[in-house]
């Protein structure tokens, strides 16, 4: 039940999926809201601190998720070969954009040579800093890749709903309920 099988997702994969989805949406909304804060706003320093901390935790979780995915079977798809290929390419795109968003955020935050304090629990060191226009270039990449990630994630969600309601596939149910995930497709 914890691990994936050829017929369904395990609890670990399902937890990674939904926790990542919540973190991505929350980070996008928090980041967007943060850009509108004024210097004297009480959240001016706290919101970016929370954003960076959650971003680093998501980066670490995404690394663990990728390793987990490499060693777990992928359940068989219920769609056509073309739709399964599109889903695979969409997932690869989501991972690449997610990594780009997080790495560019890291580059923004460490441009001054200081590490990132993660909720006071630990510090992610600044491994690369002081590049010309590092914060500005990374900021542009961060914004556009974040918007692209949200758009593709919305497409991912719409495709899941389409397959659930129109195609009557069990993919969404398997991603929501690990017990149902073990039933034959």
Task: Report on this structure.
The chain has a single domain, classed as Fumarate Reductase Cytochrome B subunit (Up-down Bundle), CATH 1.20.950. The model has no long low-confidence stretch (mean pLDDT 91). 19% of the residues are buried. The chain has 185 residues and is mainly alpha-helical. The chain is built from six helices and two strands; from the N terminus they run H-H-H-E-E-H-H-H. It starts with 10 loop residues before the first helix and ends with a helix. Helix 1 runs antiparallel to helix 2 (46-70), helix 2 packs across helix 3 and helix 3 (81-109) packs antiparallel against helix 4. Strands 1-2 form a two-stranded antiparallel sheet.
List keywords for this structure.
two-stranded antiparallel sheet; Fumarate Reductase Cytochrome B subunit; 185 residues
Describe the structure in brief.
The protein has 185 residues and is mainly alpha-helical.
The overall strand count is: 2
The helix/strand series, from N terminus to C terminus, equals: HHHEEHHH
The third-level CATH topology is Fumarate Reductase Cytochrome B subunit
Largest sheet: 2 strands, antiparallel
Strand order of the largest sheet: 1-2
Secondary structure elements and their pairing?
Elements: H1 11-35, H2 46-70, H3 81-109, E1 116-118, E2 122-124, H4 134-165, H5 171-176, H6 178-181
Antiparallel strand pairs: 1-2
Helix pairs in contact: 1-2, 1-4, 2-3, 3-4
């Amino acid at each position: 039940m914890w691990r994936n099988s050829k017929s369904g997702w395990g609890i670990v994969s399902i937890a990674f999926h939904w926790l990542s989805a919540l973190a991505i949406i929350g980070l996008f909304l928090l980041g967007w809201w943060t850009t509108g804060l004024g210097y004297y706003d009480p959240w001016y320093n706290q919101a970016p601190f929370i954003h960076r901390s959650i971003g680093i935790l998501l980066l670490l979780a995404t690394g663990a998720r990728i390793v987990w995915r490499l060693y777990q079977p992928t359940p068989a798809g219920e769609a056509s070969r073309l739709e399964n290929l599109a889903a695979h390419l969409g997932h690869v795109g989501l991972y690449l954009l997610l990594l780009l968003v997080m790495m560019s955020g890291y580059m923004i935050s460490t441009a001054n040579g200081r590490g990132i304090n993660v909720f006071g629990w630990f510090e992610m060191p600044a491994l690369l800093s002081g590049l010309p226009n590092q914060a500005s270039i990374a900021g542009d990449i961060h914004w556009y890749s974040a918007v692209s990630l949200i758009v593709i994630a919305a497409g991912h969600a719409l495709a899941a709903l389409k397959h659930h309601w129109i195609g009557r596939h069990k993919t969404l149910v398997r991603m929501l309920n690990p017990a149902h995930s073990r039933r034959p497709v």
